[in-house]
Write a structure and sequence with these properties.
210 residues; alpha+beta; 3-stranded antiparallel beta sheet; two-stranded antiparallel sheet; elongated
């Protein structure tokens, strides 16, 4: 009897060794899998991919809004003052909002027949800053009669800019935002002010600050 019991025990131990895994082996396998998953995620950069996808949506949204504004101006004398007040309901079922923050895109009617829509892209490296005051973003879509370069945001240290004063494009020397001297909005990077000084909204866009 004793010999038979010993045989059975040995047989059981052999079967366990051949068919099962020890706790140490299971832990090693789990750790290896975890490392492989982490390496794969770092290679794919999921957050970067999500940011790129959201930026693609933002660009598409601004294009859709722009197309609806083009249709709107065909039926009306001026662009709407606001795009989220129902003005575009006949041209766009729902005015889109930022895919991540759910906030409204910034819309500015520069004049009766000029507009700009601002968005802030998540992947902003190498992108310019546009706008002024509360109207800001690093990606814009405008009406076809607006030069985007005229909307570049002026930062401290920019020394030479031009502004419309009395319908005349004038040089602004050593212009510093919120500093003493003359302040113009918008400002331009060339001596023609992009031929915008004839626009009624730009005739007196410069003022002295002390």
């Amino acid at each position: 009897m004793g010999g038979r019991n010993i045989k059975n025990r040995i047989k059981t131990l052999v079967l366990k060794k051949n068919c099962g895994f020890s706790l140490t082996e299971v832990i090693i396998v789990v750790v290896i899998l975890a490392i492989l998953i982490i390496m794969a995620m770092l290679g794919l950069k999921p957050w970067t991919q999500i940011s790129k996808a959201n930026d693609g949506v933002r660009k598409s949204d601004l294009k859709r809004i722009s197309l609806s504004l083009d249709e709107y101006i065909d039926d009306n004398p001026c662009y709407p003052l606001d795009i989220y007040d129902g003005s575009l309901s006949s041209y766009l079922n729902q005015v889109p909002v930022d895919p991540k923050t759910k906030s409204q895109y910034i819309y500015e009617r520069i004049s009766c027949n000029k507009y700009v829509i601002y968005a802030t892209l998540a992947i902003s490296q190498g992108l310019p800053a546009y706008g002024h005051d509360l109207y800001t973003g690093n990606y814009i879509v405008t009406s076809s009669n607006v030069n985007p370069s005229s909307l570049l945001r002026v930062e401290e240290g920019d020394s030479i800019r031009y502004g419309c004063n009395g319908a005349v494009c004038q040089l602004i020397l050593n212009w510093l935002p919120f500093d003493r001297g003359i302040n113009c909005q918008p400002v331009y990077g060339n001596s023609t002010c992009d031929n915008m000084c004839g626009d009624i909204i730009n005739i007196y866009n410069c003022s002295w600050q002390f």
